[in-house]
Amino acid sequence: MLEKADLDLVSVGPRWIDCHAEMVIACAEAGVKGIFCEKPFAKTLAEADAMIDACDRNGVKIAVAHRRASGYEQYAKKLVEGGEIGEIQVMSGHGKGDHRAGAMDLMVLGTHILDSMRYFAGSDVVWAHGHVTQNGHAVTLEDVREGAEQVGLLAGNGVSGYYVSRTE
């Protein structure tokens, strides 16, 4: 397809990540102008770096699929910025609490919650504290396992985190 069509925008949509790097790099080198990539973005930091480098070298804009692109989240951000619903004091996010509880829920859905919080806070996290448990005890190396859906190694069926952002 990349050889036959002159594409402006490509969506790399597979939720499994074994082919994201290859697909994003091929798109960037084929001359597309923008890539919208499903998350998780890459299997490793090295793959993510190679993908971003290919996009930078070829002048390609890349975005990871997060909710801030949706109209309802942009509208809510407008209400916050306009002071129409008050000043944000605390934000709390929760996963689905289903069979994917803990680390898997954080990998699959938690990135959306964390990105939304950064979006509404208008800043990056300046410090964080977290605690990961497996069946009520702090995780150990024995709890590490291969996650479903090719997300890589993870541990814990309970995850809690405290994040602090600073607004100027």
Question: How would you summarize what this structure contains?
Answer:
This protein is of the alpha/beta class.
Largest sheet: 3 strands, parallel
- Overall 3D form: globular
Order of helices and strands: EHEHEHHEEEEE
Instruction: Please tally the β strands and state the result.
Output: 8
Helix content: 25-40%
How many structural domains in the coordinates?
Answer: 2
Q: Please, what is the average pLDDT?
A: 88
Strand content: 15-25%
Strand order of the largest sheet: 1-2-3
Give the CA-CA distance, first to last residue.
47 Å
Give the C-alpha Rg: 18 Å
Could you say which structural class the secondary elements and strand pairing correspond to? alpha/beta
Residue windows where pLDDT falls under 50 for at least 5 positions: none
Q: If helices are DSSP runs of H or I spanning 4 or more residues, what is the number of helices? A: 4
Tags for this model:
single chain, about 170 residues, alpha/beta, Rossmann fold, 2 domains, 3-stranded parallel beta sheet, 3-stranded antiparallel beta sheet, 4 helices, globular
How does this model look, in words?
This protein has 168 residues and is an alpha/beta fold. The protein has 2 domains: 9-64, NAD(P)-binding Rossmann-like Domain (Rossmann fold); 90-165, no CATH class. Helices cover 32% and strands 21% of the residues. It has helices at residues 20-30, 45-57, 71-81, 103-121; strands at residues 9-12, 34-37, 61-64, 125-134, 137-138, 145-146, 153-154, 158-165. The strands form 3 sheets. It has a 3-stranded parallel beta sheet with strand order 1-2-3, with helices on one face. Strands 5-4-8 form a 3-stranded antiparallel beta sheet, with helices on one face. Helix 2 (45-57) links the parallel strand 2 and strand 3 (61-64). The longest helix is centred in the middle third of the chain and has 19 residues, at 103-121. The protein is globular. The relative contact order is 0.13.
